[in-house]
């Protein structure tokens, strides 16, 4: 009996791994990748002790497609975190996409380029360039994936949360020189233990240094401190953070929440006393599952109908 149980779990692991590897992957750009310059940079993949990959030095950005079995018309683009130095692709990407599929949402995991002067002409705009192109591309392919083009959300974890909040507050003037007029405004935002502010008091130093350098101007710091960029047009937002996060201060979520309140942007926030940073979907310090709270929020917003 014990051998049968072990065989079952071995097969289950194999099926899960195979499923993760067979998802369609589409390039973000059909031709030359904008804001690039010739370099010897190549993508690097490292494995953590648990086997999960960490990707850095991305040169060719992509979207991995997780189409829901019974699509409800809503899509979410997921931006993994990693301090703008690497991407935690599994627990802040592919695993999350599968959870959205259970809700009937088609998900796209964004492998975006990280700021890198060696291969980019302006590293400060590169992640946003890719995030905006991802929204543009999903909107353009809406009919192909049974998506309502007015129901495309953006989720980000940690520095991916900074990227998502930047896309949610900087859409009026898209970066780059594309002539494509497709809207790059997300219809809703989900920011999980996000980097929000690049101010001296609230910043995650690694994220700020990687994006705008270790000696940014006051103008750059303000531009990418997204609590200062919220307007009445900022999309409805869902926030999650832990009070004891010693990597990205919980005040990042608080200041974005306050800015949304000030501008009358619909916003919901869930704070946990413990959990630290980087817990993905599973905060082991509580029996509460924030993805259930997220599902309730999406349902109340009409995105699951």
TrEMBL record:
Residues 1-20 form the signal peptide. Residues 70-257 form the BD-FAE-like domain. It comes from the Bacteria. The keyword Hydrolase applies. One of its GO terms (molecular function) is hydrolase activity. Keywords: Hydrolase, Signal. It holds the Pfam family BD-FAE. The keyword Signal applies. This is Alpha/beta hydrolase. It comes from Hymenobacter taeanensis.
């Amino acid at each position: 009996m014990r051998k049968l149980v072990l065989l079952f779990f071995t097969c289950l692991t194999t099926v899960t791994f195979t499923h993760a590897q067979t998802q369609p992957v589409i390039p973000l750009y059909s031709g030359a990748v904008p804001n690039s310059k010739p370099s010897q940079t190549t993508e690097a993949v490292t494995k953590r002790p648990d086997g999960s990959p960490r990707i850095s030095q991305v040169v060719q950005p992509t979207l991995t497609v997780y189409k829901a079995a019974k699509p409800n018309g809503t899509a979410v683009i997921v931006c993994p975190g990693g301090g703008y130095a690497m991407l935690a692709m599994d627990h802040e990407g592919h695993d999350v996409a599968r959870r959205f599929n259970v809700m009937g949402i088609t998900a796209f995991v964004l492998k975006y380029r990280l700021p890198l002067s060696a291969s980019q002409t302006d590293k400060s705009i590169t992640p946003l360039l890719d995030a905006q192109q991802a929204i543009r591309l999903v909107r353009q392919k809406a009919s192909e994936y049974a998506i309502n083009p007015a129901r495309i959300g953006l989720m980000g974890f940690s520095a991916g949360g900074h990227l998502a909040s930047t896309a949610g507050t900087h859409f009026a003037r898209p970066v780059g020189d594309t002539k494509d007029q497709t809207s790059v405004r997300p219809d809703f935002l989900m920011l999980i233990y996000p980097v929000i502010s690049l101010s001296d008091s609230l910043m995650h130093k690694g994220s700020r240094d990687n994006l705008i350098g270790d000696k940014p101007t006051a103008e750059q710091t303000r531009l990418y401190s997204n609590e200062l960029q919220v307007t009445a047009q900022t999309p409805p937002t869902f926030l999650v953070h832990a009070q004891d996060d010693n990597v990205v201060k919980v005040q990042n979520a608080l200041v974005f929440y306050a800015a949304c309140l000030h501008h009358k942007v619909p916003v919901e926030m869930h704070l946990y006393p413990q959990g630290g940073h980087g817990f993905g979907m599973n905060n082991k310090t509580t029996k509460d599952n924030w993805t259930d709270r997220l599902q309730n929020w999406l349902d109340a917003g009409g995105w699951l109908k």
